[in-house]
Write a structure and sequence with these properties.
The complex is a heterodimer of chains A (197) and B (73). Chain A contains seven helices and one strand, in the order αβαααααα. Chain A has 197 residues and is mostly helical. In chain A, α1 packs parallel to α3, α3 runs antiparallel to α5 and α5 packs antiparallel against α6. In chain A, 31% of the residues are buried. The model of chain A has no long low-confidence stretch (mean pLDDT 91). By secondary structure, chain B is an alpha+beta fold. A two-stranded antiparallel ribbon of chain B has the order 2-3. The longest helix of chain B has 12 residues. Helix content of chain B is 36%, strand content 14%. The chains are: A mainly alpha (197), B alpha+beta (73). Chains A and B meet through α1, β1, α2, α3 and α5 of A and α1, α2, β1 and α3 of B.
């Protein structure tokens, strides 16, 4: 049974780093995190309520820790889904995949598969350890996010920013070349037809 | 490793030492200085479930459903 010191040790050593990773990436505060902290706080308040029995105090601390454990795991899961969404935008766009990453397309794809596989492994560990030790999957999710970080680092923000205008320039050049080829082909056909007549 | 107090992204991205942060409020203040703006409270997209029939709008989140959908589980 955890005590109040265990609870806040867990908050400092696991919850705060998980929160900093998530908020550091999305640059906003997820409401889900705040809801869980509010729930945990309600149980801590009951722990300090002079009217609660020692058994009730213990139950409340245990419940508060459950909320903190859940929000820690959920922070990494939210972070993974956010990263996956950003990486998918690159993978699904031919132009961005070819010109906006500082890594070969093959390497990027293999890393993306590893990123998904690592999350699948973590998720399997998590579902198998429900009610036993939900934190068993924590290292697995961190490992998946580490791979995700390498993928995100490979994305060139400047090229990505300029991708729209670059794509427009390439399209214009392609259209101009097609127009010239059509024009030359037209003249050539006309000459051939005139000679045949 | 549980209890090692390490981050995967935060420390490398912001050049910070997580051991110097004890609360989420301190993290917020630090990131807000780096960003040059206040952090906004946001609902994690794509995983909001609204319960109908409630007097107050009730929102809960289903990160597991979203994760499982992406992982094809």
């Amino acid at each position: 049974m955890p005590d109040i010191d265990d609870l806040f040790k867990f908050y400092r050593e696991e919850c705060v780093p998980a929160y900093s990773d998530l908020v550091g990436y999305i640059a906003d505060k997820p409401v889900q995190f705040l809801i869980e902290i509010e729930n945990a706080f309600a149980h801590v308040a009951q722990f300090h309520n002079p009217e609660t029995t020692p058994e009730e105090k213990a139950t409340n601390i245990s419940k508060a820790k459950d909320h903190l454990m859940r929000v820690t795991l959920d922070s990494y899961k939210m972070l993974w889904t956010e990263m996956e969404s950003d990486i998918s935008q690159i993978l699904e766009d031919d132009f961005k995949r070819k010109y906006c990453i500082n890594m070969s397309q093959g390497e990027f794809l293999v890393k993306y598969q590893n990123f998904k596989k690592a999350a699948q492994v973590a998720r399997n560990i998590e579902t198998q350890s429900i009610g036993i030790d939900p934190l068993k999957a924590l290292d697995g999710y961190k490992e998946a996010i580490e791979i995700g970080r390498e993928l995100i680092d490979a994305i060139d923000p400047e090229k990505l920013e300029n991708s729209k205008s670059d794509l427009r320039v390439i399209s214009l050049k392609r259209n101009a070349i097609e127009l010239i080829i059509s024009f030359v082909a037209g003249i050539f056909s006309s000459v051939v037809i005139i000679k045949l007549l | 490793m549980i209890g090692s107090k390490k981050t995967v992204i935060f420390e490398k991205k912001y050049g910070a030492d997580i051991k110097k942060f004890s609360t989420t409020e301190q993290v917020d203040e630090f990131i807000e200085v780096k960003l040059g703006r206040k952090l906004k409270v946001k609902v994690h997209e794509g995983n909001v479930v609204t319960r109908r029939g409630s007097i107050f709008p009730f929102k809960s989140y289903e990160i597991d459903k979203k994760l499982d959908k992406i992982l094809g589980r």
